[in-house]
Design a protein that fits this description.
about 240 residues; alpha/beta; 5-stranded parallel β-sheet; about 20% strand
């Protein structure tokens, strides 16, 4: 266990190597992560601070960033915010301390696609990374049609593009997957646990992850996120997508 001591990306397949940027100022942790990611077939780069990470992304955009929350100077939350502002589709897996649930939620609200809490197994981290990359490479879960529409929202599954009234939406990997999954099951209510299993591939975990992503998604697809007409809350159960 390891303890505490907007351009469009080029599609890839999991048979090819993905470029993963590891951003962590703990050289011991970062070196172990790099080693395990390379064993899994990925190319890696290692950066120790947030400002240098942004420079690395701007010069050679990776397929995914493993981003530690606690960094010298610019912390991981600010790095994530700036990445999302410029490269909304770039996948981000955040590393957080188990004792900092508020920071973990803040990371998700800023658009992190997944998170791993310290202490963690390097193998778990690689599995989380591969899960996010697989979504990008293979398309959305349970989406059989190429294009799905619900009111003003249209999702192109093959190209992983979503539009509202013809204007492309800047969705993260998990936001796109969540929207596509709900749109392929209109009128069906899902618990947060069911959505976590179907979209994230988790059988357990902090279900507030789903709540945060639903809130972010509503802000992008609804006329008024406080009075949603598409993604409805089903009290005592979870969420449902209604087609107008």
């Amino acid at each position: 266990m390891i303890g505490s001591p907007a351009g469009r990306q080029t599609p890839f397949t999991l048979t090819a190597m993905a470029d993963v940027l590891v951003v962590d100022d703990d050289n011991t942790v970062a070196s172990v992560l790099v080693k395990y990611l390379q064993r899994a077939g990925h190319t890696t780069r290692q950066i120790a601070d947030g400002a240098q990470a942004l420079k690395a992304v701007s010069t050679q955009q990776p397929d995914l960033i493993v981003l530690d929350l606690m960094l010298p100077g610019m912390d991981g939350l600010e790095v994530c915010r700036r990445v999302r502002a410029t490269w909304p589709r770039l996948a981000v897996v955040m590393l957080t301390a188990l004792a900092e649930p508020d920071d973990r939620i803040a990371g998700l609200e800023l658009g992190a696609d997944d998170y791993v809490t310290k202490p963690f197994s390097p193998r778990e981290l690689v599995l989380r990374v591969d899960s996010v990359l697989r979504r990008v490479a293979q398309g959305s879960p349970d989406a059989e049609a190429r294009t799905i529409s619900a009111g003003p929202i249209s999702v192109d599954v093959a190209d992983r593009r979503a539009t509202r009234d013809g204007v492309e939406l800047a969705l993260t990997v998990r936001e796109f997957d969540l929207l596509a999954y709900l749109m392929t099951h209109p009128g069906q209510a899902f618990t947060r646990q069911q959505l976590m299993r179907a979209v994230w591939g988790w059988t357990f975990g902090d279900q507030s992850t789903v709540t945060v992503h639903v809130r972010r998604l509503r802000e992008k697809v609804e006329d008024d996120a406080n009075k949603p007409t598409l993604i409805q809350t089903v009290w005592g159960i979870g969420y449902r997508l209604d087609i107008p």
